């Protein structure tokens, strides 16, 4: 499991830990056991199991159903695996995904952006449409 005090590690209401990260920076806290990568094009194989969601920078996921399923899988895996969610910079797309995962873990949709900004990064969820996506997020398409 991650250490709750490590950089980028978000503690969800259930106590599960999930790490957010910008892929442009290396990690000092070790490798995950599973990664959810939010990028406009497929990442190189990181050497551990992962899911790639096509998600261009400053936009929304190309496939919202696949995104909801990937968020649920990341939350489930975080119960006993070191899971990271990452995009290029680690704020907009990563923050949006973490906010949706927090909703799945019990944070009310209207509070999810503030929760992630308070507990992960103050600039998480960068655009108005990312905020709207979180506010309207449901595990069902």
UniProtKB/TrEMBL annotation:
The cross-references to InterPro entries, in alphabetical order and at most eight, read:
Prot-tyrosine_phosphatase-like, PTP, PTP-SAK
Going by the UniProt record, its keywords in alphabetical order are: Hydrolase
Domain named Swiss Army Knife protein DSP-PTPase phosphatase: which ranges?
A: 66-107
Q: Answer yes or no on keyword Hydrolase.
A: yes
Q: Which Pfam families match?
A: PTP-SAK
Top-rank taxon of the source lineage equals Bacteria
Q: This protein is called what?
A: Protein-tyrosine phosphatase family protein
């Amino acid at each position: 499991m991650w250490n709750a005090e490590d950089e980028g590690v978000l503690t969800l209401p259930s106590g599960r830990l999930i790490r957010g990260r910008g892929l442009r920076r290396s990690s000092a806290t070790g490798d995950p056991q599973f990664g959810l990568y939010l990028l406009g094009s497929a990442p190189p194989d990181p050497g551990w199991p992962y899911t790639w969601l096509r998600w261009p920078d400053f936009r929304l996921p190309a496939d919202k159903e696949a995104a909801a399923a990937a968020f649920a899988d990341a939350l489930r895996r975080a119960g006993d695996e070191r899971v990271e969610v990452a995009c290029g910079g680690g704020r907009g797309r990563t923050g949006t995904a973490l906010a949706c995962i927090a909703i799945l873990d019990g944070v009310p949709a209207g509070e999810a952006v503030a929760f992630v900004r308070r507990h992960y990064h103050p600039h998480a969820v960068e655009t108005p449409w990312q905020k709207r996506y979180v506010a309207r997020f449901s595990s069902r398409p």
